[in-house]
Automatic annotation (TrEMBL):
Its main location: membrane. Belongs to the binding-protein-dependent transport system permease family. The chain crosses the membrane at residues 28-50, 93-116, 128-148, 160-180, 201-226, 283-303. Residues 93-304 form the ABC transmembrane type-1 domain. It is found in: Cell membrane. This is Carbohydrate ABC transporter permease. It comes from Paenibacillus motobuensis. It is a multi-pass membrane protein. Keywords: Cell membrane, Membrane, Transmembrane, Transmembrane helix, Transport.
Length: 319
């Protein structure tokens, strides 16, 4: 005998309809709040950079009044003319480019080679050597011993003082070694059975498979090398042809503090008389310097973004 179908009463039907309406409203509410939050986040993130661009394109005298937000009030290229007025800025730019490229390539190759060596379980000294590298992350000899070390290595006033100290990074080595640990050991064992040596395994298997983490490390190293100016101040300040872009921009920014009151100082910093006469203020020069220093990295980042996101997840998920 078939069970009779029980139809819901008016009260239960109303409750079901209420739950259905609430269930249909929840996704709409979530997506609306999520969109509002992301729009606010984008505005908060982009506003400082857009404001810096607006200030860099605004007349120095007018910038002092304040009230510059997303658009220059008195448009001018004078701030950028002041930045590029010195002929040394172009040579410094190419020195920074060469330094960034060489430092990034050598750091990636040598640090990955070290990470692969210390990831091998059969290497008996991997633990003490790893401990030594970790200690360098916590203890530093200091500025003066570092200077004397560069002097003993005959690197003072040479281009290689920018490259040699950054060829190996303990932190990058640990990150890359963690990523190498996620590569199946069967790939390495099969290559050994086919007669491949350690260097061939590193070049043909390990290095290509580490592309995501290497892109992340490359961005870190490149940004650090591009933004560095203190080593130029310490090691090569007496040799103008080895000056880097960041060091030249730092000198220009420091000199602009006195540019309004002393045109001779502005001329000594590479600023033209027109720039000094038009009252290029420290605030406007600082904005122009920030834009000039940031644009090359902003151009490179979109091409490495997908690898950068993958590389940041190294070690976060274990299967």
């Amino acid at each position: 005998m078939a069970n009779p179908t029980i139809s819901p009463g008016p009260a239960s039907a109303a409750a079901v309809n209420k739950r259905n309406r609430r269930g249909s409203l929840e996704p709409v509410l979530f997506h609306t709040l999520n969109a509002i939050f992301m729009i606010v986040l984008v505005i908060v993130t982009l506003y400082p950079f857009l404001n810096t661009i607006a200030v860099s394109l605004n007349a120095g005298n007018d910038t002092i009044r304040g009230g510059i937000y997303l658009w220059p009030r008195e448009f001018t290229w004078q701030n950028y003319k002041a930045v590029f007025a010195s002929g040394t800025i172009y040579n410094a730019f190419w020195i920074s480019v060469a330094r960034t490229v060489l430092s990034t390539v050598l750091n990636l190759f040598l640090t990955t080679m070290l990470a692969y060596t210390l990831s091998r379980r059969e290497y008996v000294f991997r633990k003490p050597i790893t401990l030594i590298f970790i200690l360098t992350m916590y203890f530093n000899a200091g500025l003066i011993p570092g200077y004397f070390l560069m002097k003993d290595l005959h690197l003072i006033n040479t281009f290689w003082v920018y490259v040699v100290p950054s060829m190996i990074s303990a932190f990058n080595m640990i990150v890359i070694r963690t990523y190498i640990g996620t590569i199946p050991e069967s790939l390495i064992e099969s290559a050994r059975i086919d007669g491949a040596g350690d260097f061939k395994i590193f070049i043909r298997i390990i290095f290509p498979l580490c592309k995501p983490v290497l892109a992340t490390i490359a961005l870190f190293v490149a940004v650090g090398a591009w933004n560095s100016w203190f080593d130029a101040f310490i090691y090569t300040s007496s040799k103008q042809e080895l000056s880097t872009l960041q060091y030249e921009l730092m000198k220009l920014l420091s000199s602009s503090m006195n540019a309004n009151s002393n045109p001779a100082v502005a001329a000594g910093a590479g600023m033209s008389q027109e720039a000094a006469a038009s009252m290029v203020t420290p605030l406007s020069i600082r904005a122009a310097v920030t834009v000039v220093a940031s644009v090359p990295i902003l151009i490179v980042y979109p091409f490495m973004q997908k690898y950068f996101v993958v590389g940041l997840n190294v070690g976060s998920v274990k299967e």
